[in-house]
Amino acid sequence: MITVDLFEKQVFVLHGITYLPHYNIRSQFVSPGYGKSNHNLYTKRELMDAGAKSKTEMLWERSW
To answer: pLDDT tens across 26-53, in order?
Structure first.
């Protein structure tokens, strides 16, 4: 059995879509499909200004 360590990370939810922190770029968030169907990056401020709510999720470690 393989186990993976998970860490508490801040995410944002806007209109039911969860935006996760980018794996390599600190302070940038991405939506589902990033890298395949879109290449949009968002800052915490952009998401908050749009009305996103912050919450904590258990995610894989980021490289930063």
So the answer is: 999 999 999 898 899 999 999 999 999 9
Which is nearest to 42 in space by CA: 56, 24, 30? Answer: 30
Question: Can you read off the two tokens belonging to residue 6?
Answer: 């998970």
pTM: 0.87
Task: Give the residue extent of every domain in the chain.
Answer: 7-59
Q: What would the DSSP string read from start to end of the chain?
A: ------EEEEEEEETTEEEEEPSSSTT-EE-TTBTTTB---B-HHHHHHTT-EEEEEEEPPP--
Cβ count within 10 A of residue 42: 19
